[in-house]
């Protein structure tokens, strides 16, 4: 009961903040939740928390709160530069995140997975694989179920599998995963970080507290600093790794362990997701044969190179989860047909120039949407492009352009918040528009 009798403030009324407030209350803390928002949805959440004995401050009251607290729990979606956070920092209140808070209460070892792309697939895949091998585990963290909620079950688990974002890792203090996984890194969230190096530094914190008793599962093509943990490497592009791909077969130190074609996960990016999962299991002393059998029926989450339908000889693919250029690149490379690409969305602080050569080589025509459509069109001057005001219009234009034998790939390459609540809503609207085609 670390926080029993303490005064705690939680910043943010999202899922993470609500979970942190509930956990602190159970621990015996006096809890206040502060959120700069003040609308009907936020007030509804506030009423539920107040009914549970948790004080809530909204709007300007939250930004200017003068009370002192023993600890602050910062929700990962809140940028530290905003007045809500600066008010707490000015009072020199210790700040941690929900990830750190839940880790302090966790009774089992943790696997933590980070990377620009593939986190959710690898987290779900690893969880399903371990469960299929008889390991008691569950997935939480950035994947949807907050760690502060899942931690209540940790006494009944052998290991907790966590998807961890750079935002969550910014505020750790003693978070020490037994297995830390680095999938990849590419430009992302440059609307929050000043450059890619600052983004990389936040993610590297996943290894900070590890010792020689722990494991670091890392992409062999990534240049990382020296790590204290025992290292297991993987790559689908070189055989200079512990896990590598040879003729469609995943090998471990030269020995075949899994035929990727027998799984429901296709493409180079999924080969690496499979390797990372197998490496995690190996670190936990799980047998390769059991793991290979356990992954055969796993299906990737929605909105990740998800098949929607075939219509008039054209294959339609929903990759709405592609919120950065690395994800778009992997999606393009995973397709074996001429492509009509639907792309664009919110301006996240990076340009689309780097991917222009691949687009020119592999994409017959592109339909562009969102805040960045004009800039992308300029970047992709070597590719035929059209612009659409809505996603539905983009689907209609793509159909008019596509020929039998083509694939229409919806892989935006950036986030959705200029037009949609999130990538899930964006992907669902794409699927609805495609299914509505006659």
Which features would summarize this protein structure in a list?
alpha/beta, Rossmann fold, Protein-Tyrosine Phosphatase, Chain A, nine-stranded mixed sheet, six-stranded mixed sheet, 16 helices, 20 strands
Number of domains: 3
Identify the CATH architecture of the largest domain. 3-Layer(aba) Sandwich
User: Would you tell me the structural class of the helices and strands?
Assistant: alpha/beta
CATH topology of the largest domain: UDP-N-acetylmuramoyl-L-alanine:D-glutamate ligase
The helical percent reads 25-40%
Full CATH superfamily name of the largest domain: Mur-like, catalytic domain
Query: How are the strands of the biggest sheet laid out side by side?
Result: 7-8-6-9-10-11-12-13-14
- Please give the number of β-strands: 20
The percentage of residues in β strands lies in 15-25%
Distance between the termini: 60 Å
């Amino acid at each position: 009961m670390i926080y029993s009798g303490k005064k705690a403030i939680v910043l943010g009324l999202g899922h993470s903040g609500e979970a942190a407030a509930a956990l602190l209350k159970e621990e015996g803390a006096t809890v206040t939740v502060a959120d700069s928002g003040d609308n009907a949805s936020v007030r509804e959440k506030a009423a539920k928390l107040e009914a549970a004995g948790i004080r809530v401050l909204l709007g300007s009251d939250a930004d200017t709160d003068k009370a002192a607290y023993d600890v602050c729990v910062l929700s990962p979606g809140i940028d530290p530069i905003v007045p809500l956070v600066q008010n707490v920092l000015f009072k020199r209140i210790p700040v941690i995140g929900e990830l750190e808070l839940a880790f302090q209460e966790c009774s089992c070892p943790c696997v933590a997975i980070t990377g620009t792309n593939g986190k959710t697939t690898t987290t779900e895949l690893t969880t399903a694989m371990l469960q299929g091998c008889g390991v008691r585990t569950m997935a939480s963290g950035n994947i949807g179920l907050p760690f502060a909620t899942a931690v209540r079950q940790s006494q009944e688990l052998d290991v907790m599998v966590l998807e961890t974002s750079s935002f969550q890792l910014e505020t750790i203090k003693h978070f020490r995963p037994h297995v830390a996984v680095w999938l990849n890194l590419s430009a992302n969230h440059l609307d929050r970080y000043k450059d890619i190096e600052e983004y990389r530094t936040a993610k590297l914190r996943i290894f900070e507290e590890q010792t020689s008793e722990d494991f670091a599962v890392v992409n062999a093509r990534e240049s990382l600093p020296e790590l204290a943990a025992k290292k297991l490497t993987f790559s689908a592009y070189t055989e200079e790794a512990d896990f590598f791909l040879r003729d469609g077969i995943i090998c471990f130190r030269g020995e075949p362990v899994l035929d990727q074609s027998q799984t429901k996960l296709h493409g180079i990016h999924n080969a690496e997701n499979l390797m990372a999962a197998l490496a995690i299991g190996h670190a936990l002393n799980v047998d390769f044969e059991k793991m290979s059998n356990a992954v055969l029926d796993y299906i990737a989450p929605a909105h990740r190179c998800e098949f929607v339908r075939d219509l008039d000889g054209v294959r339609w693919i929903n990759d709405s989860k592609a919120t950065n250029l690395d994800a778009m690149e992997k999606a393009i490379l995973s397709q074996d047909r001429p492509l009509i690409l639907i792309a664009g969305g919110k301006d996240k602080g990076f340009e689309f120039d780097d991917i222009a050569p691949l687009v020119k080589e592999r994409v017959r025509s592109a339909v562009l949407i969102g805040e960045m459509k004009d800039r992308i069109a300029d970047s992709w001057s070597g590719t035929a492009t059209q612009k659409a005001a809505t996603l539905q219009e983009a689907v209609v234009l793509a159909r008019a352009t596509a020929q039998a034998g083509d694939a229409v790939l919806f892989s935006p390459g950036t986030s959705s918040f200029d037009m949609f609540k999130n990538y899930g809503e964006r992907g669902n609207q794409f699927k609805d528009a495609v299914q509505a085609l006659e």
